[in-house]
Design a protein that fits this description.
This protein is of the alpha+beta class. The protein contains 14 helices and 15 strands. Strands 9, 10, 11, 12 and 15 form a five-stranded antiparallel beta sheet that branches. The protein binds delta-meso nitroheme (N7H). Delta-meso nitroheme binds next to strand 9, helix 10, strand 12 and helix 13.
């Protein structure tokens, strides 16, 4: 297995930059490609070689398809990118249906990335200590006019206590381990590097399609050569597709719904039942502890525990962690047909993994992140949510598959009208077909009905994050003719 070229892979693909609590995502349009290329040539990009310290500033960059074309990347090379990236997140009705981007979440209403918004060419990702991030942004922003760049949106982020997301649950726990990079961990969680970084062997033992150039197209010999000795120059190697979705979370509606569904016969609130139902929906308790390991009560000692399966942990039927919960359906581990509980089931699951690098945005509904306080806070006018970001090398087989075949699928794993209880689109096309959450139990299961949509899409785009040499190569491209 070839070692990963860590100095050429942009750092955020391999590392979450957990030591840096400040982050800011800048969406930019290129108005003067020549000036932008000069700026690109001087940009100091963080590689994946070392983990940043708390005092570091990290910069990474990604491009839309339109952005690459604007910089002069040739059309025959652009044609070698994945179809999803070429078409974009919003171009077809088909893709909107796959992603559940309908109704209030339809791209026409998006703040950015939609058909009514301004063109987005680049995504600049800045990471620093919380108290340094504003200054870091200002330093970079000062160079934008001279670099021919216009700010379309500056997306700020927030670090919530306990590494939580806005509903109040610890996030950023479960990630696939990358073969040849991460230390070996739970068997079945180590995935071929080519699933996340192009130019390496993927879960099928093959190289995923990517732009390969002739030596004449890279006269300065900047790009790496292909690993297969074909003589081509590999523009894709050490790069990855970045999926960005700005997802707003209706936290008040979420907790009010749970409060309503768990009231006693006498109409009194039942905070313990409320918390348990919410945790059943997530598949982990607020601390992060997995329900498979501790089904009846939270246990903060298990906060970062990711060492479990479903069938292999004695929960084939979902009595501990419901079959339709968010974590179980977004990574079913060993629960996939045709042979749940088997090695084969785990191998099939490895074709549908993503590396998540999202960050929360907007102020918390209650600073304590306690459900009781969130309920007392009532409706807030300010938006909050998750800048969902993930990396994969095959958007259709990884991110879109999870979203369509698992998250938004009401028939997931033998269920009937149950889409994802947290982030499902509630059958955006046909409202009667979704919005149920089934809690498997003996002697009888419980069905919670009428779940509203808690998460809406406010913006998004597919980007490509090239290897560092490939960024340098872009900086040398001649102006398009
Ligand atoms: Fe999810 N949440 O707070 O409820 N997610 N997610 N997600 N998610 C996970 O394991 C959340 C979203 C995955 O391997 C946890 O890190 C929210 C999308 C996957 O066991 C929590 C939003 C997609 C996993 C949340 C959101 C995914 C995962 C548990 C949107 C893909 C790992 C903590 C606002 C299409 C599963 C953890 C595994 C875990 C939440 C979005 C996928 C708490 C609020 C769009 C693969």
């Amino acid at each position: 297995m070839p070692a990963l070229e860590l100095t050429d892979i942009q750092g955020i693909i391999l590392r979450g930059y957990g030591s840096l609590r400040g982050a800011c995502f800048v969406l930019l349009a290129v108005d003067d490609p020549g000036a932008t290329k000069r700026w690109l040539g001087e940009l100091d990009l963080r590689s994946g070689q070392t983990r940043p310290s708390a005092a570091d500033t990290c910069v990474n960059i990604a491009f839309t398809y339109g952005g690459l074309a604007r910089l002069g990347f040739s059309s025959d090379s652009l044609a070698m990118f994945a179809g999803e990236f070429r078409e974009g997140m919003t171009a077809t009705k088909h893709r909107q249906r796959i992603l559940g981007d309908l109704g209030e979440s339809q791209p026409e209403g998006w703040r950015w990335g939609g058909p009514r918004g301004e063109r987005v060419d680049l995504l600049l990702m800045l990471y620093a200590a919380d108290e340094q991030i504003e200054q870091t942004y200002q330093r970079h922003a000062g160079r934008f006019p001279g670099a021919g760049l216009r700010v379309i949106e500056r997306l700020t982020t927030i670090f919530l206590p306990g590494r939580k997301e806005h509903f109040g649950f610890r996030d950023g726990i479960a990630q696939p381990l990358i073969e040849g990079f991460d230390e070996p961990g739970r068997p079945g969680n180590t995935v071929a590097a080519g699933e996340f970084v192009l130019g390496y062997v993927n879960a099928y033992g093959q190289y995923t399609q990517r732009p390969l150039l002739s030596p004449a197209q890279d006269p300065q010999g900047i790009l790496p050569s292909t690993p297969t000795a074909s003589g081509s120059r590999d523009f894709g190697r050490n790069g990855s597709y970045l999926v960005f979705r700005q997802l707003s979370q209706d936290v008040g509606t979420f907790w009010r719904f749970l409060d309503d569904k768990t009231r006693t016969a006498a109409g009194a609130a039942d905070p313990a039942a409320r918390l348990k139902l919410a945790s059943k929906m997530v598949g982990r308790w607020p601390s992060g502890a997995p329900l498979v390991k501790t089904p009846d009560a939270d246990n903060p000692q298990l906060a970062d525990d990711d060492d479990f399966l479903y069938h292999g942990s004695g929960d084939a039927h979902g009595f501990k962690c419901p079959v339709g919960s968010h974590v179980r359906r977004s990574n079913p581990r060993d629960a996939l047909e045709p042979d749940p509980g088997s090695e084969r089931s785990i191998e099939v699951g490895k074709r549908h993994r993503i590396i998540r690098r999202g960050r929360a945005y907007g102020p918390p509904l209650a600073t304590s992140m306690e459900p009781t306080d969130m309920l007392a806070a009532g409706d807030a006018t300010q938006e909050r949510g998750l800048h969902f970001i993930c990396f994969n090398t095959h958007i259709g087989r990884q991110f879109e598959f999870i979203q369509h075949t698992w998250v938004n699928n009401p028939k997931f794993d033998g269920l009937y009208t149950d889409d994802d209880p947290l982030i499902g689109d509630r059958g955006a096309d046909d409202k009667d077909e979704a919005g149920t959450f089934t809690v498997q139990a003996t002697p009888v299961r419980t069905r919670v009905v009428g779940l509203p949509r808690f998460v809406h899409v406010r913006g998004g785009a597919y980007f490509f994050m090239p290897g560092i040499r490939a960024v340098r190569f872009l900086a040398t491209l001649p102006a398009p003719v």
